[in-house]
Amino acid sequence: MGETPADERIAELSVEEELHLKEDAMDAAPVGISISDPSLPDNPLIYVNDQFTETTGYERTEILGTNCRFLQGPETDMDRVAKMAEAVTEQKQVAVELKNYRKDGELFWNRVEIAPIYDESGDVAYYVGYQADVTDRKEAELALAAERQTLDHVLSRVTSLVPDIAETIVDSDTREDLEASIAERFATVPDLTAAWVGRYNPSTGLLRPVAGDNRPTEPLGAADVTGLAAAIDSGTVEVLTDSTGLFAGMEPPAATALVPLRYRDSVYGLLAVATAEADVFDERETVVLEAIGQSAGAAINALERVSLSAGESVIEVRLEVADPTMPLVELADSLSGEVTADGQATISDGQPTLLLTVSDVPSSSVAEQVKRTGDLKLVAGSESGTVLEWTVPPGPFARSIVQDAVRLEHLSATPSSVRLTFAAASEHMGNTVVGRFRDGYDGVELLAFHEVADRDQSAESFRDHVTDDLTDRQLEALQKAYVSGFFEWPRAVEGESLAAAMDIHPSTFHQHLRAAERKLISAYFEG
User: Fold this and answer.
1) Are the C-beta atoms of 33 and 113 separated by less than 8 Å?
2) How do beta strands 94-101 and 107-118 pair?
3) How many CB atoms lie within 10 A of CB 506?
4) CA nearest 325: which of 316, 312, 334, 317?
5) 3-state DSSP: the chain helix, strand, coil percent, rounded to 5?
6) 462-469 — which CB contacts under 8 Å span 24+ positions?
7) What is the pTM of this model?
8) Helix, strand or coil for residue 253?
């Protein structure tokens, strides 16, 4: 092959020109380049390029003649420094990544590669170093590693703790058993130091510790614990760094998580969990804790409902609400009469309905009000009164009916106030109802709050047994027929009217009613 123009140009370069060209190339290189002379004391730097000075922030006059250890600082890994020193001693190449410091003290990750340069006799004359600022990549790698570690931790928590809590929920026969088991299980988690469960009283705003070895001896309020009110109001986990007074018989922990035991918008209590490691309760950990708190809250609600059906006593709660904005007061005021209801509401798809009886009000006036109000439906009208089906609008009353372990016993509404009587499964549930109404309405007066024998226990048990056997339509037909006076003689209402109220054909109504009657009679005689 003949000579190329490039070959000719290379041949023309003088030694001086070649050296100058190489120096220009090194100065323009996008990585830091340095050259040290091991023949001089302390192997000082004798050359650095522009990128080296730009990366480190030092001027050449500050760098040349010194050993490159001036880039080291408190967080520099000295084992990696020793690895570089060993490579220089053994005249080998080496590559490390370590933390160095710029002139202004800013820390950066530096990838350093060092290689020996030999002279004509084969001896090491210089060492060349290549430095690259890899801070962005290194921080991304470290963040990914931390993410993986966190995910591993959360996965471990989910696979070990959640199944145990689920088993605890299933095995607990009472609320007391559930609370004690939850506190005991959390206290055995390796990176947690203590745990206790408290019951929340929405009427007083106090949290009463009931389970756990390190629980406080006295009830706690918002003034006693920072974050308590926030956890109750939001229903989400609150992490506290000041845990003074939260745990008895131990030093205040580094951090505490307050976990609401919540079902829908009802907070039954809190789980307080302590740790000696300040960073345990990160965002993912609190998601797991929040899920456990919701599961425990739903279990407490279910146990309270069972207690309401099977218990020998209940808490009778009687309230008077003298708030003109209360829907029942508004309804009674618009009719200028009294509105009453007996028995529990019907709930379909989370929407409660009540059968209301309006006394001493002309049927025509009631019919006009029904036309003006979308949540009312006319069921039957007679001389003794008019029966309406009322879809309870969202609010404290609806939430109590749908969510709480309470049974509506009676209500009586006048244009000035409404009186309500509930049977609650426990004092806590009674206080929940009181708290709901006080938060939602003005003029709420507590008329009675005491334990009574559940007179309706056997009747309620029988009613639950029959209800479980009836379809929704059969139960609706039976309830409307009873409340409307269909079974009286002479009948206060005919089947056609009730069928119209249910938007079905009369023959279909009678089929539902006869099926319900047959099941009711069979349950009575056959058990």
Assistant:
1) no
2) antiparallel
3) 14
4) 334
5) 45, 25, 30
6) 462/523, 464/309, 465/523, 466/519, 466/520, 466/523, 469/519, 469/523
7) 0.59
8) coil
Q: 407 forms bridges with which residues in the sheet? A: 423
Tokens matching residue 253 = 């922990």
From residue 301, how far is each of 63, 231, 426 by CA, in Å? Answer: 72, 19, 11
- Helices vs strands, H then E, count in the chain: 17, 19
- How many CB atoms are closer than 10 A to CB 270? 27
Q: What phi, psi does 281 have (nearest 5°)? A: -90, 70
Distance CA 289, CA 238 (A): 10
Contact 98, 83 (CB under 8 A): no
The span from the CA of 484 to the CA of 380, in Å, is: 6
> How many residues are listed for the chain in this entry?
527
How many C-beta atoms surround the C-beta of residue 28 within 10 A?
10
Instruction: Please tell me the distance from the alpha carbon of residue 143 to that of residue 56, in angstroms, as a whole number.
Output: 24
Half-sphere exposure of 155 (CA within 13 A, CB side): 6
Pairing of strands 45-48, 194-201: unpaired
Distance CA(258)–CA(271), nearest Å, equals 6
Distance CA 356, CA 344 (A): 12
Q: pLDDT 10s digit of each residue in the chain, 527 long?
A: 445 555 554 455 455 555 566 666 677 778 899 999 999 999 999 999 999 999 999 999 999 999 999 999 999 999 999 999 999 999 999 999 999 999 999 999 999 999 999 988 889 999 999 999 998 988 888 887 776 766 666 566 556 666 777 788 778 888 899 999 999 988 888 888 999 999 998 878 889 999 998 999 999 988 888 888 899 888 899 999 888 888 998 988 999 999 999 988 888 999 999 998 888 888 778 888 888 888 888 888 888 888 887 777 889 999 999 999 998 998 888 888 888 887 667 877 778 888 888 887 877 788 888 888 878 888 877 666 788 888 898 888 988 888 888 888 899 999 999 999 999 988 888 988 998 899 899 999 999 999 888 655 555 556 666 677 778 788 888 878 777 778 877 777 788 888 888 888 888 888 878 877 887 787 766 65
The residue to which tokens 């009711």 are assigned: 520
